[in-house]
Amino acid sequence: MKTGSLIILLLLTAGQLSAQGIAHNGVPVAVSATSATVTENVSGALEQNSYHVSLVQNSKTRVFEVFSPKASSAEVKLVTSSGDDICVIHKGKLHEGKNTFKLISQKIAPGSYYVVSKFSGGEQFADKVVVGK
Questions:
Q1: pLDDT tens-digit profile of 13-33?
Q2: Pairing of β 85-94 and β 124-131
């Protein structure tokens, strides 16, 4: 009887530790951290401090401010955390620094997304944004 109780206690403890590890992991399953400042997401893009995106929205428009680390031709997309494309925000030249793109009347469900910029040289950068109602 003692052996059975001990085995059950061990199984419960192991299950709790496993669940705590998952619950405390702030990185989504589709995103794996590679260092404190660089994260690779599902589309193979990098999250990096020199690349970031701000989203300003009202009832009819969404304005994406993309801060690029370099000037280059690029395709900027809005994608889900699982890597599914939602829409193309911009295709063409990005300037180093702030780039502003406006989407009017785009049907985008509220939630968390990534803005992914794929540069002509093969580099990809991403930043998370939250779309509201």
A1: 444 433 333 333 333 333 323
A2: unpaired
